[in-house]
Design a protein that fits this description.
Layout (H helix, E strand, L loop, with lengths): L13 H4 L5 H8 L3 E5 L4 E3 L7 E7 L2 E7 L2 E8 L9 H4 L6 E4 L3 E7 H10 L1 H21 L4 E5 L5 H11 L5 E4 L7 H6 L9 E4 L3 E4 L3 H7 L12 E6 L3 H12 L4 E5 L25 H14 L3 E4 L3 E5 L5 E5 L4 E9 L3 E3 L15 E2 L4 H6 L4 E5 L3 H10 L5 E6 L10 H9 L3 E5 L1 E8 L3 E8 L5 E4 L4 E3 L3 E3 L24 H6 L18 E3 L11 H20 L1
Parallel strand pairs: 8-9, 12-13, 12-17, 13-14, 17-28, 19-26, 20-21, 20-26, 21-22
Antiparallel strand pairs: 1-7, 2-6, 3-7, 4-5, 4-6, 8-10, 10-11, 15-16, 16-17, 18-27, 23-24, 24-25
This protein binds flavin-adenine dinucleotide.
Flavin-adenine dinucleotide (FAD) binds next to helix 9, strand 13, helix 12 and helix 15.
Length: about 550
């Protein structure tokens, strides 16, 4: 049964979310597609369908509904001059909603390829459609109108990981907190799930995944379904942090056939940043997730394809085309490769640390984590910019932030503006010359202990949240001798490669390696993974774009 009452307006930005196109704009869209007549009740798209199509209504109306068991909820109605679609149209992922003709109607229909061609060539329509698609996705997330329901608990560490994975992939989901909602037993029984199995992700209403890995979630929700993983690509980019996403945007917009592999979620380290304030063009700052989300959509708009939750495990570099081995998958052949695998957080040398991962110990301070410790005391470990940002951000909602820093001061490791904010914030207590030495608790962290390295004095505090922000190591373990590394494992490029490095790598060309080229011709390294890189979002983005200019040169050699 469909509830035929139109829903309350989803947003105050209705003109942008549901714009009405002019006859001229509709004519330009019609030139890319075909006119189709549909009967009342005729299905245009079923929820979960892979084959995404885009419709502009020229007569009648289209209903958009969310199937919910045997019933439906009406989400919206598109009338004459309005169009269907949301972010899935760009990403190529399965549709989340069902669409059908509400009366005998006429539509213009475009398949996804035709739509991509339109947004790449018509900037006015691109602005209107992209803005509407993104805002509609924001509304779907806000209302939890997705195809995933997460049953979780703050005592089950996987819960936070799954929330973060869905959030960082911009995927709408509903959350049921088992600690607060005792009435979910029926749902658990329906899927034969015991309390010990949580977190559980009910995927597309049919599959219940017990504490799934990110890869299982991506598979179930079809994140990678539309992508051919076997064709030879002009450019394979490994890593979708700022450097990799920048290379994808520039590469795809300049006509290259680009595939990006990301072992986790788009955004990289920047995705964990609560607010980036020094990136050009964002005077009031931008959260890492917002920046990554926009870049991700931008790359897809130009036709780059992204494989999520599947990393590169090996580079076959002994012959061309090169081949990148994917986790549990095929080898992707590549004429050129950009390595943008960044760096990973250093973990504290505490033996029971992993027991509290996601259950009191966190490696990022975003809105998701901040909500978990609202009004409580927290510890931030580290003295670099990421630790400083986290402390300032968390101090807005936590009762008190203890910054535990091993060195005697912050001046050498942190930007001046952050030091000033920390000094001036009464909610932040700086504990320099101090080391975290123990974590205690049951299912969740309950207590921490730290030691003043000068006096040797040990203090115990009932604090349930520790943010570890202690720097990172390069993501180069999978390269196995393919490219020259420095003593710390970062990739050497261009002028940093010594004659000995090139001789050891059997550099085959008369020319020297280009600026960001590794000791393998046509394999580039950009961003934090590159030796000598300035560890900033802007430099990562800059290097990603420069590498693409050099990729063109290699492809023409
Ligand atoms: C909390 C925090 C706050 C920060 N704040 C700022 C700031 O305000 N301003 C600023 O300029 N900089 C900031 N930085 C630094 C900035 O985020 C990094 O310099 C930047 O993200 C580096 O980008 P990247 O693309 O080189 O690498 P990363 O961001 O590290 O991205 C690398 C990506 O590669 C993926 N990957 C790794 N191995 C593989 C593999 N084998 N296969 C596939 N994918 C793989 C990872 O999952 C990751 O998504 C901050 C960093 C952190 C951690």
């Amino acid at each position: 049964m469909t509830d035929r009452t139109p829903p309350a307006p989803l947003t105050s930005r209705l003109d942008h979310v549901f714009p009405t196109l002019t006859p001229e704009q509709i004519a330009r869209i019609a030139a890319h597609g075909r006119v189709r007549r549909v009967q009342r009740g005729e299905m245009l798209i079923e929820a979960g369908e892979q084959d995404q199509r885009f419709f502009v209504v020229t007569a009648g109306h289209i209903e958009v509904v969310r199937p919910s068991g045997a019933t439906e909820d009406l989400v919206t109605v598109h009338r004459r001059g309005q169009f269907t679609g949301e972010a899935n149209m760009i990403s190529g992922r399965r549709g989340l909603l069902r669409m059908r003709a509400g009366e005998s109607s006429e539509v213009i229909e475009l398949d996804r390829e035709q739509l991509l061609a339109l947004v790449q060539t018509d900037s006015e329509l691109s602005d209107i459609l992209m803005r509407a698609f993104i805002l509609r996705r924001v509304e779907l997330i806000a209302y939890g109108f997705g195809d995933a329901v997460l049953l979780g608990s703050s005592h089950a560490p996987g819960t936070l990981r799954i929330k973060e994975f869905l959030t960082r992939n911009g995927h709408p989901y509903s959350y049921i907190d088992l600690d607060r909602d005792a009435g979910v037993q029926d749902l658990l029984d329906r899927f034969h799930v015991g309390v010990a199995d949580v977190p559980v992700l009910v995927c597309r209403g049919v599959v219940a995944l017990r504490n799934p890995t990110n890869q299982q979630i991506a598979e179930c929700l079809g994140f990678n379904d539309a992508i051919d993983q076997t064709q030879v690509r002009d450019l394979v980019i490994v890593g979708a942090g700022p450097a990799g996403l920048a290379a994808a945007v520039y590469g795809a917009s300049e006509g290259l056939d680009v595939l990006v592999l990301e072992s986790d979620s788009p955004g990289g380290q920047a995705g964990w940043s609560s607010k980036i304030e020094n990136y050009l063009g964002f005077p009031t700052g931008i959260s890492g997730q917002d920046l990554a989300g926009r870049a991700y959509t931008q790359a897809q708009k130009f036709g780059a394809q992204l494989i999520i939750a599947k990393g590169a495990t090996q580079l076959a570099c002994d012959r061309k085309p090169y081949a990148v081995q994917i986790d549990d998958g095929p080898r992707v052949p590549a004429r050129t490769v950009v390595i943008a695998t960044g760096a990973q957080y250093r973990r504290l040398a505490l033996e029971n640390l992993s027991r509290f991962d996601g259950a009191g110990v966190y490696y990022g301070a975003t809105f998701v984590e901040a909500q978990l410790c609202r009004g409580e005391e927290v510890v931030v470990v580290g003295g670099g910019n990421s630790a400083g940002q986290a402390a300032v951000f968390l101090a807005q909602s936590a009762k008190r932030v203890h910054m535990v820093v091993r060195s005697r001061g912050l001046a050498e490791s942190m930007s001046r503006y952050l030091i000033r904010r920390i000094e001036q914030n009464p909610a932040i207590v700086l504990r320099s010359g101090t080391e975290l030495i123990a974590l205690e608790g049951g299912d969740h962290l309950e207590r921490v202990r730290w030691r003043d390295d000068q006096t040797g004095g040990i203090e115990t505090h009932d604090i349930e949240h520790v943010f570890v922000m202690t720097g990172a190591v390069p993501g180069t373990g999978w390269l196995e001798g393919c490219v020259a590394l420095d003593a710390k494992g970062f990739i050497k490029t261009g002028p940093d490669l010594s004659p000995d490095d090139l001789a050891a790598a059997h550099w085959p060309l008369a020319r020297a390696p280009y600026l960001l080229e590794t000791s393998r011709p046509g394999v580039f390294a950009v961003g934090d993974v590159r030796a000598g890189n300035i560890k900033r979002v802007a430099s990562a983005v800059g290097e990603g774009s420069i590498a693409v200019a050099l990729v063109h040169r290699v492809l023409h050699e």
